[in-house]
Specification:
single chain, alpha/beta, Rossmann fold, Arc Repressor Mutant, subunit A, 2 domains, 4-stranded parallel beta sheet, 6 helices
Length: about 190
């Protein structure tokens, strides 16, 4: 069974139609008509789409089907597109310590603070965050900047210095990127 969950909320007619063709669909279909049950159900799901015939303000990942009648194939196409959008958005957010990094908008968030980052800064942070040990300057040159020469350059040090300064100014965090004897590290 697919890990995509389509929840039909207070829209029994649509549920009956989709349930009838359910074996041919690539998502699990559930009908819910109770707000408390819906809330409990969504706590345990990660990949879901709630479809209804009107907008409910307290529901995330909601698709409102208010233009009817609709061709069933067009509806299934719209549902699949919504699932793709949800997957794209969920994959674009990376959690690093207490921060959320949005890869699409190239922004770093912590509570109500937001910092705009460059692509190299994003790549540096994500590369450092994936390593359990300090990453050498030479490794960063090769993996983030694609430098593969032995030429002396201070590109990495300069970028890390500026990135640390931006993070300090925005989040007052001087320990986000730690400078170690053998490289840089995010703990």
């Amino acid at each position: 069974m697919s890990d995509q969950n389509l929840i039909i909320y207070k829209f029994n007619g649509l549920y009956q139609i989709l349930d009838e063709i359910g074996l041919d669909l690539n998502f699990k279909i559930t009908y819910v008509d109770n707000e408390n049950y819906l809330s409990d159900l969504l706590k345990n799901l990660t990949n879901y789409l709630v479809i209804s015939n009107k907008k409910y303000l307290n529901i995330d990942n909601q698709f409102v089907l208010d233009n009817r009648p609709v061709n069933i194939f067009k509806l299934l196409e719209k549902i699949n597109i919504e699932f793709l959008k949800l997957q794209f958005n969920s994959q674009s957010k990376v959690k690093v310590n207490d921060y959320i990094i949005d890869l699409n908008s190239r922004e770093m968030f912590k509570k109500d603070n937001k910092l705009k980052l460059t692509e190299k800064e994003i790549n540096t942070i994500t590369y450092l965050s994936k390593s359990a040990k300090p990453v050498s300057i030479y490794e960063l040159q090769e993996m983030v900047w694609s430098y593969q020469s032995d030429i002396e350059t201070h590109t990495v040090e300069t970028h890390i210095y500026r990135l640390r300064k931006k993070i300090l100014n925005t989040f007052n965090d001087k320990d986000f990127i730690m400078s170690k004897k053998n490289g840089y590290q995010i703990k």
